[in-house]
Give the backbone structure.
Amino acid sequence: MPRYREITDDNEDYSDYVQVRPPKVQLGPKKTPSEILGEIVEATGLEDGFNPTFQPAKYEKVWLLSSLGVFYEQHLINDVLAQVKGGKEATVYRCMAYPETGLELVAAKVYRPRQFRNLRNDKMYREGREMLTGEGRAIKRTDHRIMRAIGKKTTFGEQVQHTSWLLYEYTTLEKLHAAGAAVPQPFAVSDNVIVMEYRGDYHRAAPTLQESVLPQNQAQAFFEEVLRNIELMLQHGLVHGDLSAYNILYWDNRLTLIDFPQVTDIRSNPNARFILERDLKRVCEYFDRYDVKSDWFKLAKDFWEKYAEPELEVENLLADLSE
């Protein structure tokens, strides 16, 4: 398993939540960016040769090297070739994999430091879902130390939320890829990076549907492929949460669904039906430009009745039996 940070607040011991303490870097006013980078490089062992081809801005370089260094040390990433996607939450890089992995290229999704992230109403997606530890296990609500840290919004509490948000994406990718969904295969994870399967080539990352022009005679088949994935997610009790033409890649005549940190549980989130309807509405509106006719409201109703309502009935029955 990857490494996770040990952060403590209010003299509490959270060592059972995290595993490895990273190097501490004191950001004082007298230190230049190059001095700070030198401390990180020295502390994490990057002096052994991790000097990426991609040259980011100097402040980004500090964050990039410290984030990806562990994967270089573990012989997963050999080089960072280019930035392929930037966003409010994370930046995705095209990376060269070590030959021993059997891969040529991988994608590294590097989440921004939590203080610089801009989540859009993430409370709606968090509602009803458990917080995850760095190992992907649910945190018990009876763990009052962690719950108190989250409630008080301490540094550790914010780190727990940040890690949980990222781990939901990683564990969802694991589950859906194993089930045959059209999603990237995840390879590794740390407290702020997911390394996953790459779509594209050395020169260009796969464009999104929004950036693509589909063959008119295949549009119906692609629409049905998206619906297959939506149904597959529902079979696992999940809704993507932000599905649109911006979060579906098109490459080599294949579609790939991406970006899952806001994945929603249909059994515990009271907003799940609304979120499903919104996902389907966006997908149907996109394919309508190719004259693929559909009724997003009817699709949502049929899917909800087929997959969600039986799950909710079981949940309610179990709740009744436990009383």
About this structure: Helices lie at 33-44, 58-73, 123-126, 144-151, 155-178, 219-235, 272-288, 296-322. Residues 84 and 203 are 10 Å apart (CA to CA). Confidence is low (pLDDT under 50) at residues 1-38, 40-47. The longest helix spans residues 296-322.
